[in-house]
Every structure is written in C-alpha cells, then in structure tokens.
C-alpha cells in the first residue's frame, strides 16, 4: 500500500468524523429548539425545528454511504474497521435523537394554545438541558477519543431517568386534579419520555465509543436496568 | 479465491440469516406474550417475557460480532457486503422491537390489579396482532428475498398508525370520564405507542430488504410522514 493511499484513507476517516460531529451539532440544536418551542409555545420555531430534522436524515444517509464505500474500497481491518462501524452506529443513534426531538416540536404545535401547560413544561426544560449536556459530552468524548468521559455520560444516565420518574408523577397529578389538564399532560408525558429516550441514545453512543477504543463490547449491565420493573402502577417503566 | 473459501463464506452468510430468523422469531414471541400478559393480567407470563428479552440481546451481539468478523476476514464486495450490513441493521431493529415489547410486559405487571383496563386493552390486542403480522411478513420477505412483500409491509404501516390514533383518543376519553382511569390509561397509552413504534421498526426492516435487493436506499417518503403534524391537541404525534 502506498503512502498516498494511506493518507487518503485517513482523509476519509477524518471526513467521517467531521460528518458525525456536524450531525451531532444538528441533533443538539433540534433538541434545544424543540424544547424552547414547547416552553414558549413558539409555533414558528416548532415548524423550523420540524424541517431542520431533514438535514440530520440526509447526513445519516451520507455517512452510511461513505462508510459502506470505505469498507468495500479500503477493506479496513481491526481499529480502522471499528472506526467505520462506529460511525454507522453513532449516526443511527443521532438520527433517532433527531426524530425524537422533532416529535417534541410537533407536540409544541399541538398544545400551542394551552397556557396551563407552562408550569409542567418547566420540568421538561430541565430534563432537556441535562440531555443536551449528555449529548454534548458524549460527542466531545468521541472527538477526543476519551473513554473515561464516555463512561461518565454512561453512568449519569440514571439522573435523567430519575427526572423522568418525577415528571411522570407530577403530570399524573395534574391530570387527576383537573380533566382539562389531561390532553396537554399526555403530550408532555410523551415529550418527557422522548427526552429520556434521547438520554438512552447518548448512552448507546458512549457504549460505541467504549467499543471503538477497546475493541470489546461493554458487557456491564446498564446502571438503570430494571430499576422500575416492580414499581407501583403510577411509576413509569424504562424501555431497556 | 479457492472453492473452499467461497463455500465457507456462503456458510457464514447462511449462519447470519439463520440467526436473524431466530432473533425475529423471539421478537414475535415476546410481542405476543407481552400483549397476552397485559390482557390477562398474567404476572407470571409478564415476568417470563421480561426475561426472554435477554436472548434477543444476546443474539444481537452474536450477529454483530459475526458480521464484523466476516467483513474483516472476507472483505466482501457489493451484494455480499450488503448482506452483512443488512444483517447488522435488521438485528438492531429486532433488538429495539424486543425492548419495546419487554416494556409492554413491564406495564402488564404495573397495572396488574386494575380491572377497568380490560376493555381498553382489547384495542391494544388488535394492534398487537397487526404488528405481529407485519413482523412475520417482513421476516418472511427477508428469508425469501421478496422485495414486493417487503414493500407491502412498508405500505401497510399506515393501518397501525390509524389504529394508534383511534386508541389514543379512546384512552383520552376514559381518562376524562373518571380520574381513576388515568393511571392505567397512561400505561396503555405507552403500550399502544410501543406497538406503533414496533410497526415502524418492521418498516425499517422492509427498507433494509429493499436496499439489500436493489443496492439503493428507498428514497420515497414514508406513507404516514407528517400525517399528524398539524392536528388538534387530542391527536397523537408520529415519531418520524
């Protein structure tokens, strides 16, 4: 293999990493904007956010195409192959984060006129800030190849789960207090669930970074695993 | 390349396909059992279903490890590479289906003692049967490499979305009628949403089969795309 080909492969790996970083930036922005649209009942921002998700989908296709092309053309081995596989996996998680955030923006349009939702939406806003930080930190750990930072994100996911549990109970209480609260509370319930799911995808990305750096899958059970399996009926249930 | 290596690679591809089929069978069973546990308030079945998801997770790891090993060792090109990439993508969708079904089983435990949930759960059961059929058909289309059948599954997803919309409204009505219905209705709302998401994953698999057979991504917009973006507040919102 000539020096030229090696350099070119490195360029492709760099291009892949840049696309992941750009995709991650978009996903962070869609989450922040969707939550802001929900809190301010800003229909115009919600609409822009819904449309912005397209760019994330486009980037996922581009990353996947480049990754498959690289495998076919370069036939990478070991760490190089892991880089390419990791890019496919991370872009798939970022695409789902975009979808979940977009769904929050759609709910912002749906509950537009209901002012009773304001207080309840504050909890969603707090959750969203934590999720944004998780997403930012895990993307930084990808750029810096910092496994310890990725593991911090992985361990901190329980914080989001705890907030989700608390918001879930708060929203149930609103619904029971006044039936007029039921519709918007239901939408906020799904919004909170979406942010909890976004946290899970950040955790997935942390696991991929672990695999990328060590070559082994992370076998340790997730911190929150089954924490809510046998809880009373008014507790939320985790997805994993 | 010797005859021996070609045969062995074919064997690996067959092993991959068999593991996908097995994983798909498990995912179907977890969905059916979780819904039955919900309908019959069968806590013992719910517990078995929650534990059965582990086998799906194990199979996903095995498929991914074999797929990466095959890429590294065999350096497949074109259609062969697509087979391996498709296996990774399909196993990832099946793993999510297992998680979503497991979450329904957890809710079956949570709403165990609430008899008011019986009628509402019938709609969930109908949805689950449709989702099971979608999953079965898309797995058959994978085994038979039948793109037309995969496209049928893809187009039929709107049926599940319509059922979800109907159940969503029904459950909101229950909640408004009697505050004692709120807790179980919320759990059933998430169960219905999970089945709708399972349908989306069957649709993803259909798209992967299209890519596998044609070498091109399916660019056509999904049938349900944005159908509920601007609907009134008591309508559910799609995730995509």
UniProtKB/TrEMBL annotation, chains A, B:
It comes from the Bacteria. InterPro entries: PhoU, PhoU-like_sf, PhoU_dom. It is found in: Cytoplasm. The keyword ATP-binding does not apply. GO terms for cellular component: cytoplasm. Residues 20-107, 124-208 form the PhoU domain. SUPFAM superfamilies: PhoU-like (SSF109755). One of its GO terms (biological process) is intracellular phosphate ion homeostasis. Homodimer. Belongs to the PhoU family. Plays a role in the regulation of phosphate uptake. This is Phosphate-specific transport system accessory protein PhoU. It comes from Microbaculum marinum.
